[in-house]
């Protein structure tokens, strides 16, 4: 039986804080890898794709990589432990840079899509860093541990776009060739940092332990509500962010403008993480998720009012803030719904659902922005926010499923 005395909780939280700090650094580097891909993917796609409507296909392939890796990453964690599983995943980050370099150097759209798939695989592992920090945390510290890890994204929001700005012409005459080599180096550094994580390998379940079938998770209102809200928040963030750089270029703004737009967006995604955990502890995860959904809707309103650089930047900042509150809140709800012995399994199922919904949205983003325009991208936000809001209201009125 696990001790829950204040002394035992303090000892556990010292380790949790150390792990959260290391995982925050790893998140910064993995997030920079992802940010580079979001800042450049649609632009490179527009150059390499056989038709313009496929310009955002590389970002959609990224999301497919996210979804495809969610369950395998969970199995690697259960088989080898989090540290080894995450170091294996950094290999996909290195391949992202190498394939990206080859794709732009040889003007190969399929190879570039392979790069974005690898980026998605790496990002999927990085997304579970927040749950890794929670593994060694007490119940009281768990929301803060998740929040601490997410603060690494602030550094990612600076490093990723700056990597694009400073290296986009480093290996002339091929645009972004140097950027993708930089990606590979950053992923290697992340692998070194992850070697310092100290999270015990999940223990084998005790004899006679009965696991709930996956279908039982979806009879738990708390889990279902968390999945719907997390999927809605993340899908909309990805849906709008994927189209934004292409829309900015189409509005005669520069590549640097687009890169800095993504920079402010990513900073806004992670900056509130310094206090999001405290807000969840004080007000409860459902209220913070509701705030996230509201901010996402407001970002669409701003985007619909103009196409100047400040309009894009403000909309992307609000979108990032909405994602932070909505997604961290939903993640805390998932963590609270999991039994200790099924934590990694439940988290993997959640991520598979969230990233699967993201993939649908991402595939439609390019078609919508190139066919119907930037305004239509933002009009799509409102009904999906409404779905998340309804799920939150209905879920809060229902009692949790019995064990």
Automatic annotation (TrEMBL):
<feature type="transmembrane region" description="Helical">
    <location>
        <begin position="222"/>
        <end position="250"/>
    </location>
</feature>
<feature type="transmembrane region" description="Helical">
    <location>
        <begin position="262"/>
        <end position="281"/>
    </location>
</feature>
<keyword id="KW-0812">Transmembrane</keyword>
<dbReference type="Pfam" id="PF07690">
    <property type="entry name" value="MFS_1"/>
</dbReference>
<feature type="transmembrane region" description="Helical">
    <location>
        <begin position="313"/>
        <end position="337"/>
    </location>
</feature>
<keyword id="KW-1133">Transmembrane helix</keyword>
<dbReference type="InterPro" id="IPR011701">
    <property type="entry name" value="MFS"/>
</dbReference>
<protein>
    <submittedName>
        <fullName>MFS transporter</fullName>
    </submittedName>
</protein>
<feature type="transmembrane region" description="Helical">
    <location>
        <begin position="57"/>
        <end position="77"/>
    </location>
</feature>
<feature type="transmembrane region" description="Helical">
    <location>
        <begin position="177"/>
        <end position="197"/>
    </location>
</feature>
<feature type="transmembrane region" description="Helical">
    <location>
        <begin position="108"/>
        <end position="125"/>
    </location>
</feature>
<feature type="transmembrane region" description="Helical">
    <location>
        <begin position="288"/>
        <end position="307"/>
    </location>
</feature>
<feature type="transmembrane region" description="Helical">
    <location>
        <begin position="145"/>
        <end position="165"/>
    </location>
</feature>
<keyword id="KW-0472">Membrane</keyword>
<feature type="transmembrane region" description="Helical">
    <location>
        <begin position="349"/>
        <end position="370"/>
    </location>
</feature>
<feature type="transmembrane region" description="Helical">
    <location>
        <begin position="376"/>
        <end position="395"/>
    </location>
</feature>
<feature type="transmembrane region" description="Helical">
    <location>
        <begin position="21"/>
        <end position="45"/>
    </location>
</feature>
<feature type="transmembrane region" description="Helical">
    <location>
        <begin position="84"/>
        <end position="102"/>
    </location>
</feature>
<feature type="domain" description="Major facilitator superfamily (MFS) profile">
    <location>
        <begin position="184"/>
        <end position="403"/>
    </location>
</feature>
<dbReference type="InterPro" id="IPR036259">
    <property type="entry name" value="MFS_trans_sf"/>
</dbReference>
<dbReference type="GO" id="GO:0022857">
    <property type="term" value="F:transmembrane transporter activity"/>
</dbReference>
<dbReference type="InterPro" id="IPR020846">
    <property type="entry name" value="MFS_dom"/>
</dbReference>
């Amino acid at each position: 039986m696990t001790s829950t005395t204040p002394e035992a909780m303090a000892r556990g939280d010292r380790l949790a804080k150390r792990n959260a700090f290391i995982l925050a650094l790893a998140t910064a580097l993995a997030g920079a890898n992802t940010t580079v891909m979001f800042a450049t993917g649609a632009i490179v796609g527009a150059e390499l794709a056989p038709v313009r409507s496929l310009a955002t296909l590389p970002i959609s392939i990224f999301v497919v990589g996210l979804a495809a890796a969610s369950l395998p990453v969970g199995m690697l964690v259960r088989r080898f432990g989090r540290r080894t599983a995450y170091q294996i995943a950094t290999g996909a980050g290195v391949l992202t840079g190498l394939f990206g370099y080859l794709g732009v150097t040889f003007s190969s759209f399929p190879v570039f899509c392979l790069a974005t798939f690898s980026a998605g695989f790496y990002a999927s592992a990085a997304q579970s860093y927040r749950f890794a920090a929670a593994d060694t945390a007490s119940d009281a510290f768990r929301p803060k541990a998740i929040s601490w890890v997410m603060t690494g994204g602030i550094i990612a929001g600076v490093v990723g776009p700056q990597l694009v700005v400073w290296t986009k012409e480093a290996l002339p005459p091929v645009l972004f060739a140097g950027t993708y080599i930089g990606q590979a180096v950053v992923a290697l550094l992340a692998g070194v940092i992850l070697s310092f994580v100290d999270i015990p390998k999940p223990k084998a379940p005790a004899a006679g332990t009965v696991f709930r079938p996956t279908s039982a998770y979806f009879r738990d209102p708390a889990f279902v509500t968390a999945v719907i809200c997390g999927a809605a928040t993340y899908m909309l963030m990805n849906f709008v962010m994927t189209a934004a750089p292409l829309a900015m270029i189409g509005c005669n703004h520069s590549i640097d403008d687009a890169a800095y737009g993504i920079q402010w967006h990513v900073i806004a995604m992670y900056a509130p993480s310094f206090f999001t955990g405290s807000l969840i502890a004080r007000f409860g995860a459902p209220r913070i998720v509701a705030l996230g959904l509201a901010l996402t809707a407001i970002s669409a309103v701003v985007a619909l009012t103009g196409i100047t650089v400040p309009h894009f930047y403000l909309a992307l900042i609000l979108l990032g803030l909405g994602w932070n509150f909505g997604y961290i809140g939903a993640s805390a709800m998932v963590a609270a719904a999991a039994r200790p012995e099924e934590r990694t399994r439940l988290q993997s199922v959640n991520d598979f659902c969230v990233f699967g919904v993201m993939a649908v949205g991402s595939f439609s983003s390019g078609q919508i922005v190139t066919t119907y325009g930037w305004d239509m991208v933002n009009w799509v936000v409102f009904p999906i926010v409404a779905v998340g809001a309804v799920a939150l209201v209905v879920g809060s009125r229902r009692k949790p499923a019995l064990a």
